[in-house]
Design a protein that fits this description.
about 400 residues; FAD/NAD(P)-binding domain; globular; about 25% strand; D-Amino Acid Oxidase, Chain A, domain 2; 8-stranded mixed sheet; alpha+beta
């Protein structure tokens, strides 16, 4: 019998497995895909978030700040390139200035170093092609390749004796008196405890364990464009808008990735399937599941105008370019080429609230990570430690 089975080999599952292994526990990770890190972990912006946006005292604020520091240490120890390039958050309208003040206040309370308010000429020194009324410079933000981090975590785990069983899905979890049986498509694995890090499927895996999760995962896709090489000089590092405080998404932004390419996006539209990437077929079962959830219809009633505009922007390169131009006016529609997409696992409550903070639920013999959207890749090593502490208290 193993000590702990971790469901899901995304960056959160792998980081949790590593934290458990560091506590001398025998760990098995079960992953339905043939490789590790293929869903959210392999389809994101690769931004090392600083902890600017999150409510002071929240799990997101604490684990992001700690996780960022630890991610940089891990990457340094394992020769993974990291660029702490800094970012600017740019206010383009008067109405955004109080929101920028609030971000600055949160950032200071969360302990971020070097935050600096910029006027237009200060902004031009940091990002010569960006325009705005005012900006916040956040020097601790940066970029990394989280897929590479996930692969390296898997190698470290295996070298330390952990099992990573890929290509088999967990179909049911049966907690017993003293152990937990995890049924997979390739037979059962038994352990003293189980951790559910199944990302886009975390609520379903929780239900398979007999838990009634307090939230439902609603998948929100983000589509990216890439700046043509001739236009990528327009962005030095990371340029963000002031986010709409009603949503946990950051708005279409510019990211100079660790490989040097510049991406624009992601937006946020309802995905027609939990793994419905751009160019793949919708999943009717997943769509029906979302449509049956009362929380989804409450979101639609409240935000249908924003949702429709985002869908339109997703379909039209010209509209996407217009959003990009509000931050960097020299961007033209022909500078944008379609790039990848990612699907966010966003937890929604039955009353239609998009859950902002990370959600971790403990039950007999199991810990379920039910909401780990951005910045969970940045925070993964700290989330792993947090979850491992909960598990070790139980076994
Ligand atoms: C578009 C986008 C942009 C983002 N940008 C950033 C960013 O810049 N910075 C940042 O910090 N975060 C970012 N994030 C968030 C970040 O990518 C996620 O928070 C993080 O990757 C979550 O990791 P995870 O391990 O929980 O999920 P995942 O990476 O999705 O892993 C879950 C794993 O569980 C497996 N699984 C599911 N069901 C089963 C089952 N039944 N049996 C076995 N295995 C199963 C899946 O196959 C998958 O491999 C972004 C996310 C998206 C989508």
């Amino acid at each position: 019998m193993r000590d702990v089975v971790v469901v899901g080999a995304g960056i959160v599952g792998l980081a949790t497995a590593k934290a458990l292994q560091d506590r001398d526990l025998a760990v098995t990770v079960v992953e339905k895909e043939p490789e590790v890190g293929t869903h959210q972990t392999g389809h994101n912006s690769g931004v090392l978030h600083s902890g600017l946006y999150y409510r002071p005292g929240s799990l997101k604020a604490r684990l992001c700040v700690d996780g960022r520091r630890r991610m940089i240490e891990f990457c340094t120890d394992h020769d993974i390139p990291v660029d702490v390039s800094g970012k600017v958050v740019v206010a383009i309208r008067d109405s955004e200035l109080p929101l920028l003040d609030e971000l600055e206040r949160r950032g200071r309370e969360n302990g971020l170093a070097g935050l600096r308010r910029l006027d237009q000429s200060g902004l031009a020194e940091v990002e010569p092609h960006a325009v705005g009324l005012a900006a916040l410079h956040v020097p601790e933000a940066g970029v990394v390749d989280f897929s590479l981090v996930a692969r390296r975590l898997a190698a470290v785990l295996q070298a330390g004796g952990a099992e990573i069983l890929t290509g088999r899905a967990v179909v049911r979890i049966r907690p017993g008196p003293g152990d937990v049986r995890v049924d997979t498509t390739a037979g059962p694995v038994t352990a003293r405890a189980v951790v559910n890090c199944a990302g886009l499927h975390a609520d379903r895996v929780a239900r398979s364990a007999g838990v009634d999760p307090p939230v439902r995962i609603v998948p929100f896709r983000g589509d990216y464009y890439r700046l043509e090489p001739g236009a990528d000089h327009l962005v030095r590092a990371l340029i963000y808008p002031v986010p709409d405080p009603r949503f946990p998404f950051l708005g279409v932004h510019f990211t100079r990735r660790i490989d040097g390419t510049v991406e624009v996006g992601p937006n946020a539209v309802l995905a027609f399937g939990r793994e419905h990437y751009r160019g793949t077929a919708p999943h009717l079962g997943d769509v029906a599941d979302v449509f049956r959830y009362p929380g989804f219809w409450r979101i639609v009633r409240r935000y249908w105008r924003t949702g429709a505009a985002e869908m339109w922007r997703s379909a039209s390169r010209h509209t996407y370019a217009a959003a990009a131009r509000s931050l960097v006016p020299a961007v033209r529609a022909r500078d944008l080429q379609r790039a990848g997409s990612g699907v966010r696992a966003q937890a929604v409550t039955p009353d239609g609230s998009l859950v902002d903070d990370f959600v971790v639920v403990e039950t007999d013999g199991a810990v379920h990570v039910l909401n780990a959207p951005s910045p969970a890749a940045t925070a993964s090593l700290a989330i792993g430690d947090h979850v491992a502490d909960l598990v070790t208290r139980r076994i």
